[in-house]
Structures are given as structure tokens and as C-alpha cells.
Specification:
- The chain is mainly α and 96 residues long.
- Helix 1 packs across helix 2 and helix 2 crosses helix 3.
Length: 96
């Protein structure tokens, strides 16, 4: 039995141990959307670091970098140690 089939806390992401990915993926999507819609967009669209030129662009890039980091943190919190090791070299949430 996987952890997300049991009772869930609203503040804890669904847990993935390597089985039932499709179901976990759906639960994780809605968990992240509930945390921050823009974080989910980073996962969907991917994060590409923009060249830093202007202050406005730097500010926007910094915001996206923070959203990418938040998305990666949320996803990693929902992975077992074995699964987390497999994606530990990923630099973007979309890659995970």
C-alpha cells in the first residue's frame, strides 16, 4: 500500500515510492496547484535561466528561479529516498 492511499494531510505532499505513478502524479499536481499556481506553471513549461541584462529582467528571472526551487522542493518532499536519488542531479523541476 502506498502512502498517498492512506489519510492525507493538507500540508504534506503525496508520497511516491516507485509504484502507482499515474495516481501520485494527479495528487501531486493538485497539491502543487493548491500551494502556488505559478509553481505548477514552472513544472509544466520548464524553467530556463534568462541572460541577465536589465533590472526588470533580473527581477522576473529571480522570481522564476525561486518558483523553480520551490517546485523542486515540493516534488522532492513527495519522493522516497530511492526515487529521490534517481532524480538528484536534475536542475529543473520539469526534469524531475
Amino acid at each position: 500500500m502506498t502512502r498517498f492511499e492512506e489519510g492525507r494531510f493538507i500540508s504534506c505532499p503525496p508520497f511516491f515510492e516507485g509504484e502507482a505513478y499515474f495516481q501520485w502524479n494527479i495528487f501531486m499536481k493538485y497539491f502543487i496547484l493548491a500551494q502556488d499556481f505559478e509553481v505548477w506553471e514552472i513544472i509544466e513549461e520548464g524553467y530556463v535561466e534568462a541572460p541577465k541584462k536589465k533590472k526588470k529582467q533580473m527581477s522576473e528571472n529571480d522570481t522564476k528561479a525561486k518558483q523553480n526551487a520551490r517546485a523542486m522542493h515540493i516534488v522532492h518532499c513527495g519522493l522516497s529516498e530511492d526515487v529521490s536519488k534517481k532524480v538528484s542531479t536534475c536542475k529543473r523541476a520539469k526534469e524531475i
